[in-house]
């Protein structure tokens, strides 16, 4: 019982079977260490063996079944086909932490994030009975689920605390107050953000939890959001999902595989004086509560006028099929067919000087309001863009005129600079501090 098998993956281990093999090795190791198996994972053997026996093969452009490449020109989790689940968290750097602490943590996070996206446990010394396990264990036996872990930095990280003021990306300033904002600081901002997306909610949660564990003493968690259903497609291959208002959402989103569109609207380019930030993007998060009790009492015709689309098919009110181009000039009886205050009219690139963003949001729920009994939930809106001004312009128009405003409230907000992808051997600490 004193011998604990080494479950750390060999550096050159690769190939389609890697993730499943690694999880199986964790199982084997735990199985061999009876005390650990009993204490930490219980009767996990049978469960793990069950999960390990199958693979959906739903690979999303990664290096193995259900894996997405961690390194590359851009971070994963932006152009990546939207996974089904989200765990999003923000953190502030703790009062006593130094720049060296932060840099070291970002290096540790890089290794952990890379391992987890490959379906491996957080690297460490598993089976050591005298230290807490490096990996918390709840993803053992699960498939990697196309996990992506995307990091972002808030404007406050570039204040005077860590010597980063000279490296602040030029667009990274707190978003201004926007029309109809009703923001709660408890759902807003943060020095850093982590977006973990996966097709399995436990895999996404496990990723954030383990990064949080590694950050003990350096970062303080600020807020966290779980997303239970994607509300966008980021490739035409994906079926368009429905949001909690029952409408298809993401029909006219940017196609993440369209390099020209991504370059024009999403990736930070040569216009950015901070060279290190080029190839990155800006992430805007908005927690948007839907007033579902009001929406559910609204008649179908009005619901369709709010968006400018048919609820059943997702087609524009001027068309027949979902992907028909909306005709914003069409009139009937002197009135616009797509009303003047319809959501898609106000948000469409045709009516905003060609401006576009990549939407990558999720439905969320916070349960039931204990005082009113109302459902608390809505859209955790996430969008990527090359300049925050794109969001500011759109939201200024929507906040003033959108018919949807009767049924929603913006209750949380964040702006983060998402650095570009990591090259081989590079880590987030070196990339940020230079
Ligand atoms: C500031 C940007 C946007 C916010 C905030 C926003 C909130 C929001 N949207 C929906 C539902 C739908 N949005 C749709 C289209 C759409 N929305 C935005 C931007 C924001 N939405 C854009 C740029 C577009 C594309 C417009 C176009 O080019 O036609 C649609 C229609 C289907 C689609 O194309 O995706 C729906 C439905 C909700 C429920 C919501 C806040 C809760
Ligand atoms: Fe929208």
From TrEMBL:
Name of the featured protein: Deferrochelatase
Family statement: Belongs to the DyP-type peroxidase family.
Catalytic reaction(s) noted: heme b + 2 H(+) = protoporphyrin IX + Fe(2+)
Any one Gene Ontology molecular-function term assigned to this protein's record: heme binding
GO biological process, one term: iron import into cell
Entries under PROSITE patterns matching the protein: DYP_PEROXIDASE (PS51404), TAT (PS51318)
Enzyme Commission number(s) from the entry: 1.11.1.-
Organism: Actinacidiphila guanduensis
Function: Involved in the recovery of exogenous heme iron. Extracts iron from heme while preserving the protoporphyrin ring intact.
Keywords annotated in UniProt: Heme, Iron, Lyase, Membrane, Metal-binding, Oxidoreductase, Peroxidase, Signal, Transmembrane, Transmembrane helix
Record Pfam families: Dyp_perox_C, Dyp_perox_N
Ranges that cross the membrane: 26-49
Cellular location(s): Cell envelope
Every Dyp-type peroxidase N-terminal domain range: 75-228
């Amino acid at each position: 019982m004193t011998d604990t098998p080494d479950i750390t993956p060999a550096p050159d281990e690769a190939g389609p079977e890697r993730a499943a093999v690694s999880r199986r090795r964790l199982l084997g190791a735990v199985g061999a260490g009876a005390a650990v198996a009993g204490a930490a994972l219980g009767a996990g053997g049978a469960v793990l063996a069950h999960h390990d026996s199958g693979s959906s093969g739903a690979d999303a452009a990664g290096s193995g079944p259900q894996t997405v490449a961690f390194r590359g020109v851009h971070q994963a989790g932006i152009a990546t086909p939207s996974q089904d689940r989200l765990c999003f968290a923000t953190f502030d750097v703790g009062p006593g932490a130094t720049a060296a602490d932060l840099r070291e943590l970002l290096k540790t996070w890089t290794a952990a994030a890379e391992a987890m996206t490959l379906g491996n446990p957080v690297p460490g010394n598993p089976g050591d009975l005298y230290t807490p396990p490096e990996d918390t264990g709840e993803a053992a036996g699960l498939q990697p689920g196309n996990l992506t872990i995307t990091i972002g930095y808030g404007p406050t990280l570039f204040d005077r605390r860590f010597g980063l003021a000279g490296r602040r990306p030029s667009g990274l300033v707190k978003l201004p107050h926007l029309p109809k904002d009703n923001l709660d600081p408890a759902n807003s901002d943060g020095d850093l953000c982590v977006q973990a997306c996966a097709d399995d909610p436990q895999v996404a949660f496990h990723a954030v939890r383990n990064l949080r564990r590694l950050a003990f003493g350096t970062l303080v968690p600020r807020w966290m959001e779980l997303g239970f259903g994607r509300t966008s497609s980021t490739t035409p291959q994906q079926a368009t999902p429905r949001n909690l208002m029952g409408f298809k959402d993401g029909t006219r989103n940017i196609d993440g595989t369209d390099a020209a569109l991504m370059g024009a609207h999403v990736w930070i380019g040569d216009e950015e004086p901070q060279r290190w930030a080029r190839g990155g993007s800006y992430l805007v998060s908005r927690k948007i509560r839907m007033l579902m009790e009001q929406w559910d009492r609204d008649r179908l015709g009005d619901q369709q006028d709010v968006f400018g689309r048919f609820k059943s098919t997702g087609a524009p009110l001027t068309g027949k099929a979902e992907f028909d181009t909306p005709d914003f000039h069409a009139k009937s009886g002197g009135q616009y067919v797509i009303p003047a205050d319809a959501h898609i009219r106000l948000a469409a690139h045709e009516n905003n000087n060609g401006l576009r963003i990549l939407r990558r949001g999720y439905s969320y729920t916070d349960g039931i309001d204990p005082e009113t009994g109302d459902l608390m939930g809505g859209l955790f809106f996430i969008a990527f863009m090359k300049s925050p001004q794109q969001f500011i312009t759109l939201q200024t128009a929507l906040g003033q005129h959108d018919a949807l405003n009767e049924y929603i409230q913006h209750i949380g907000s964040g702006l983060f600079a998402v650095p570009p992808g990591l090259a081989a051997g590079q880590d987030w600490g070196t990339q940020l501090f230079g």
